[in-house]
Amino acid sequence: MDQFLGALRWRAELALRRLGATGLAACVILVGCMALTALNVLPERAQRSELLTSLADLRARQASPQSADAASAADPGAQLARFYAMLPGEREIPGVLSRLVEIGSRQGLTMPEGEFKMIGDDQGPVVRYQIVLPFKAEYRQTREFVRAAMRAFPTLALEEVSYRRDSPGDNVLECRLQMALYLNAAYPVRP
User: Fold this and answer.
1) Does residue 45 have a pLDDT over 90?
2) pTM above the 0.85 mark?
3) Contact (CB, 8 A) for 173 and 164
4) Phi, psi of 99 (to 5 degrees)
5) DSSP at 136
6) Is the pLDDT of residue 189 over 50?
7) pLDDT digits over 77-128, tens only?
8) SS3 (DSSP) at 37
9) What does DSSP assign to residue 122?
């Protein structure tokens, strides 16, 4: 067994001498590329095939919808009722505002004050609750706050954003966000 290992070692040393430094570097790069392929490309291929399978399933379901579901989805009255049911009621405003403050504090924002105004017309069940929030923060914090708030409240719309910087080197900006929360005035409490 020792003779076999000795011969194997001797052949490996001989092969390394023949390769030289350039050949050895090329072998190391080749092994690194193979490892990179195994770690990155192969999992991506598997994920791609799963996504293609899901897409094929979705297309098959879309091609043959259930007749009852298709009838209710095509009914404009049912669609409108689902839309109104999605909107929060006016009584949910305090909870929405406290959740916005909570989202802001997680992003490191301090919102000392705000302006709030109900804007609506008497012709429809949808009203707009305008929220104006002035605060100081970095641009990244503001962007993350808006993203998190929009995810938390699908009926929240960003109407206006304004920034002011005292000097070009400042990271902290004076921000003013104007948002609108769309509410269902016809159904003050959401089911």
Assistant:
1) no
2) no
3) yes
4) -70, -35
5) E
6) no
7) 888 888 888 888 888 889 988 898 899 989 888 887 889 998 876 677 888 8
8) helix
9) T
How much is the pLDDT for 69? 57
Single-letter code of the amino acid located at 1: M
pLDDT of residue 122: 64
Strand partners, 135: 175
Q: Which amino acid is residue 185, in one-letter code? A: A
Helix boundaries (H) for the chain = 2-36, 42-63, 67-74, 76-86, 93-106, 139-152
Taking the C-alpha atoms of residue 66 and residue 143, their distance in angstroms, rounded to an integer, is 41
Sequential DSSP letters for 54-93:
HHHHHHHHHHS--HHHHHHHH-HHHHHHHHHHHSPBGGGH
Amino acid 34: pLDDT = 84
For residues 183 and 87, the answer to whether their CB atoms sit within 8 Å is yes
* Dihedral (Cα; 21, 22, 26, 31), 10-degree rounding: 0
What's at 92, amino acid-wise?
A: E
Residue 108 region, left (φ>0) first, then alpha (ψ -120 to 50), else beta?
Answer: left
